[in-house]
Structures are given as C-alpha cells and as structure tokens.
Amino acid sequence: MGKHALLSASSSHRWLSCPPSARLCAEYEDKGSEYALQGTNAHTLCEYKLKKLLGMKCENPIKNLSFYDEKMEECADGYAGYVAEQLTKAKEKCTDPILLIEQKLDFSKYVEEGFGTGDCVIVADGTVSVIDYKHGLGVLVSSEHNPQMMCYALGALELFDGIYDIDTVNMTIYQPRRENISTYSISKAELIKWAEEILVPTAKLAFAGEGDFKAGEHCQFCKVKAKCRKRMEYNMELARYDFKMPATLSDEEIAVILSKVDELSSWAEDVKEYALQQALIGAKYNGFKVVEGRSNRKYIDEDEVAKAVSSEGFDPYEKKVAGITAMQKILGKKKFEEILGGFVYKPQGKPTLVPESDKRPAMNTAIEDFSEN
Which GO terms describe its molecular function (predicted)? Predict the structure, then answer.
C-alpha cells in the first residue's frame, strides 16, 4: 500500500470546505468500495491504452482487472485518443512538449505533505495542461475552480515552471460515462493568488485539525458522514416545516426544501447504512432489529441447467438483439451508421427538477407551451 496524504488533492474539496474533517477522517480505516476499485481498474486501463497509442512499452493489464468490460474499453480508448489529440496540438506550438503519465505531483510548498498523482500532464512553451480521468457515473465533475485540479496544477508548476516559463494552466476533466469533457484555463498568477490566499491558510487549519466543521455537498465522500453532528444539524433544519402537505406551503418554502432535500435523503440513507453495519456486529438500537430481506431464486450452476433442459429437447436460452454499444463493437462505428443509423433514436429524457446551476437547457413546461399559442 502506498502512502496516503492527509491533505490529498483528491479530498481537497472536502477539507477546504470543512478543515477539521481531515484529521477526523484519518482516524477511520479506508475500507474502499467497488466503485473505487472500478475506478482504479479504469485508470489502469487508460494508462495502458495511452502508452500503447504513443508507442511506449507496456503490458496489457486486462486479465488482472476485476471490473473490465467493453464499456471500460471504449472509455479508455476515448481517453487515450483525447490525450493524443492534445499532444498533437501542443506540438503545433512547441517543438519539444513533455507528456507525463501517472505523474506524482508535489504541492507541499503550499500544503503540508501535499502530493497527488496526475493522470496526464502535458507541458509546452508557456502552458501546462493537466488532464484527469473520472470513471464515475453518479456525480458530474466540473473542472472550473476544481481544487483537486488546481492542486495538481501547482505541483506541475513546481516541476516545470522554471524550464518552460509557464503563464497559463489548462485543467481538464475527462468523464466519458457522463459525456463530459470540462476544461478550465487560468493564469499562473491567478492560480498562485488562490494558493496563497485560500489554499495555504485553510490547509494549515486542516493539518492542525482546527477550524469549523461545515456540512454540505462536500460531505458525500467523508468517512464520518453518517455520524457527523454538524451534518445532522444541517439536515434537521428541514424539520421546522413540519412536513405539511405541499398545498399549505408557499412556493418560497418549497424552494428552500428542494434546495436541501437531496442532501437530506443522502444523509438519511448514510445513517441507515451505518446503523445496519453496526447492528450486524452487535449494536442495539431501541425499537429496531435486523431481519433477513427478500431474495430471488437462483440457479446453482447455469451450465448444468442448460444441459439438463437441452437433454429434454427444450431451448434453455433467451434470444435478444445486442445492445447499441455491443452492436457498435461488433460492426464498427462506420458500418453501424451505414446499416443501423436509421434505426436508432434517443428518446426524450424524463423531466427532472434540478438547480438553476445545472448546465442542461430548461424544458418547455405545459404553461410555457400554452402561452406560446
């Protein structure tokens, strides 16, 4: 196991918002998750694909990837292609750009023991570009004022600023499963200003375990989110509405509830899951007990089932058309468009109420449609 930084770049969004959470989280074991392992597998595949595309010596890791599938393959190919395009663009302006893969980036000049690993760094005359692959599907990640990316950029500046006289920093999030490529550019001066005025003083508080606890959306990946008293207080503010029927609430009150309800739901689920895990090892909660949930019947051995059914003259297999991704893999993108382009459509998504900050365009509502007639 490698050393983990107390104030890592990947957790910077949390500890910059809630400084004392860094020391508190360090007291808890990092148990990991299937999502984290899937992300690690995807990064390993991305590294291999990029090195292979660039003609570098590398070993195919697929046999060792627990979560490998064709979607991960497609994402890694896309990432490698994107990075290669950025390198080509850099070569148009610089004769000797540098590309670094899985590079350790040290930003301890600003954050005590601060370091992280950049998926890809491209350095050219006047510019450094940091590219970070995100395999996650649940949270759309933006590069704009992203503290993880800004910490990585500070580490890249420490390595190359004196050599390439950098004045501009480009930070890109490549998140293929959300069709998200987000790039944010900032001047070196602006980045250093942020580091000195925001990062340095907050990191000092966090490293010392000082500062104020603060709850918010940054709590999502906190190890103590289920037990945190500040998060409980933050979410229980909704109790003052007494949860009357919506007809008795003003639009303004409903808007307040909507702004907090996702975090409230997430918090409640975190508490339930934590309580379940504790109950399984002996904790007692008044009025509650652990029972066996519902389950569905399963075959012991599908191959043996198929043989048994076939021996009786029946077909044990279901037949269906391959999915769009699988079919595109079979035919190739060009052939897929030639043969099936006219048979594919994208249905309208289900209406969803989201904050104004969401970048998707607003739908026309029924009242807006009526007013246009």
Answer: hydrolase activity
For residues 21 and 70, give the distance between their C-alpha atoms in angstroms, rounded to a whole number: 38
Q: Is 121 helix (H, G, I), strand (E, B) or coil?
A: strand
Of 53, 127, 114, give the one whose Cα is nearest residue 83.
Answer: 53
Give the type of residue at 50: L
Q: Which two tokens stand for residue 369?
A: 């449609």
Closest to 211 (Cα-Cα) out of 14, 53, 20, 81: 20
- From residue 174, alpha-carbon distances to 65, 117, 130, 258, 287 in Å are 21, 15, 11, 30, 47
Beta strands in the chain (DSSP E): 98-106, 115-124, 127-133, 168-175, 180-187
Residue 257, Cβ neighbours under 10 Å: how many?
Answer: 15
3-state SS assignment for residue 279: helix
pLDDT band at 4 (very low <50, low <70, confident <90, very high): low
Digit-coded pLDDT (tens) for 188-226: 999 999 999 999 999 999 999 999 999 888 888 888 888
Look at residues 142, 5, 135, 144 and name the one whose alpha carbon lies nearest to residue 76: 135
CA distance 15 to 23: 9
Helix (H, G, I), strand (E, B) or coil at 181: strand
Element (H, E) at 78: helix 70-93
150: exposed, middle or buried (C-beta count within 10 Å: 0-12, 13-18, 19+)? buried
What single letter denotes the amino acid at residue 340?
A: L
CATH 3.90.320 in the chain: give the residue spans.
12-208
Asked if CATH classification 3.90.320 holds for the domain at 12-208, the reply, yes or no, is yes
186: phi then psi, degrees, rounded to nearest 5? -145, 150
Residue 78: name the closest of 45, 127, 103 by CA. 45
* Those residues with Cβ within 8 angstroms of residue 236's Cβ, 6 or more apart along the chain or in another chain: none
pTM given for the model: 0.72
Mean pLDDT of the chain: 88
d(CA 305, CA 283): 42
